Amino acid sequence: NAGVTQTPKFRILKIGQSMTLQCTQDMNHNYMYWYRQDPGMGLKLIYYSVGAGITDKGEVPNGYNVSRSTTEDFPLRLELAAPSQTSVYFCASSYSTFGGRGKAFFGQGTRLTVV
Amino acid sequence: TQLLEQSPQFLSIQEGENLTVYCNSSSVFSSLQWYRQEPGEGPVLLVTVVTGGEVKKLKRLTFQFGDARKDSSLHITAAQPGDTGLYLCAFPGRGQNFVFGPGTRLSVLP
What we know:
- The structure holds 2 protein chains of 2 kinds.
- By secondary structure, chain A is mostly beta strands.
- Chain A has no helices and 11 strands.
- In chain A, the strands form 2 sheets. In chain A, strands 2, 4, 5, 6, 9, 10 and 11 form a 7-stranded mixed beta sheet that branches. Chain A has a 4-stranded antiparallel beta sheet with strand order 1-3-8-7, with no helix packed on it.
- Chain A is globular, with a radius of gyration of 13 Å.
- In chain B, strands 2, 4, 5, 9, 10 and 11 form a 6-stranded mixed beta sheet that branches.
- By secondary structure, chain B is mainly beta.
- Chain B has strands spanning about 5, 10-15, 20-25, 30-35, 45-50, 55-60, 60-65, 70-75, 85-90, 100, 105-110.
- Chain B starts with a strand and ends with a strand.
């Protein structure tokens, strides 16, 4: 039972490089989310999607882009990496929204360091 | 802007002790969730509370939603090292997403 799978688990980037964080879920969930977690902090929403082809910005979208071409996949793109993007990134999915008593399932995270 | 505060920020206790952590806001919520995040893992949902005054129990964990639905508490009885982790509360945000508090980092020492 895979759930939410994120790759890679760890990555070191140089300033100005780009990369894509991969996220896939096998639960047929419509809702998917990208959060970042800085040391000692909670989770901040970067982008979310309510279904294939539909995405929207969260609290901290600057420097990131997303796409949702399929129900299963929700990649997060970092363009021109900056040290401020050093963080742990979590992808999550849910069957319904919070208001619908939704439960968020999280991946194991991608630990990104920008040097 | 709705904000969640959690207290204490850090808590270190001995195995067998009891503890309570809190989640507070000035806003009223339709529901609230508690998650636990173990080191190196993503958060895992523990409970959802939806009714003011509601109490839910999960083995040694007791969750309460405040009568006014602005706050919640998590009480752990006879804490064990396996309870170590970051405890996050979350509420429904705008745009169908989950908004998380900063968390309480609990360390239970054997």
